[in-house]
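Q: I'm building a small set of examples for a reading group on sequence design. Run inverse folding on the following structure and report the sequence directly after it, with nothing in between.
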């Protein structure tokens, strides 16, 4: 079972590595230099497009982070910009747009429904994406999507966390790292995964719990 799970994560990682490069190269303005589909050594903080997405929302990419200032550490205790809708963080309302990032939505669709569903321009993972698992008349299925195998009918917090980081889907695809490692410089990947889970499952107040409820409704409209 462990070997099967590792193989599945490896497939997700390889697939997302190519997909993320394609998605970013279709943004405007087009990233320069070109983001290679195969060579990741120029991603991460070595490239403006991926660096801005990985940059903690507490910092300004155009200032210290871009210039590798040692006083500005990138750790798992700050949300990266790719988790936010349009990459925009409001310090007066830190949860506004959180976990609504376009790249995150695409990645969840890519991993759990199908690569083609990631091209759907809707800003959430509609339940229609999951219902499309049903076989149409005359169609012969040759591959079952992950959501079908797991009997997923909706997006849940651990699916979001898994895609965002665990072993490590979207973050690894954006980074310059060639392979998974638990601690990437100062960034603890597993701790980051648990921070995301805690956001959804350990709400500090009724208001926070209502925000999480509304967020999950948004994902599953």
């Amino acid at each position: 079972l462990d070997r099967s799970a590792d193989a599945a994560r490896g497939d997700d990682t390889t697939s997302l590595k190519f997909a993320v490069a394609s998605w970013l190269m279709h943004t405007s303005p087009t990233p320069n230099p070109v983001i290679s589909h195969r060579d990741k050594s120029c991603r991460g903080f070595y490239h403006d497009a991926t660096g801005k997405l990985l940059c903690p929302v507490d910092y300004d990419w155009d200032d210290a982070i871009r210039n590798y200032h040692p006083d500005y550490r990138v750790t798992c205790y700050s949300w990266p910009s790719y988790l936010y809708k349009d990459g925009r963080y409001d310090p007066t309302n830190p949860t506004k747009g959180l976990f609504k990032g376009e790249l995150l939505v695409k990645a969840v669709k890519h991993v759990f429904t199908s690569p083609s569903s990631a091209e759907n321009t809707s800003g959430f993972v509609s339940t229609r994406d999951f219902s499309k698992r049903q076989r149409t008349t005359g169609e012969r299925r040759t591959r079952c999507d992950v959501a079908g195998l797991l009997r997923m009918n909706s997006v849940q917090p651990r699916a979001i966390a898994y895609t965002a980081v665990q072993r490590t889907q979207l973050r690894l695809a954006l980074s310059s790292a060639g392979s998974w490692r638990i601690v990437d410089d100062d960034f603890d990947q597993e701790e980051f995964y648990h921070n995301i889970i805690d956001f959804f499952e350990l709400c500090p107040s009724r208001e926070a719990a209502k925000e999480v409820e509304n967020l999950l409704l948004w994902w599953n409209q």
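Confidence is low (pLDDT under 50) at residues 1-10, 133-144.
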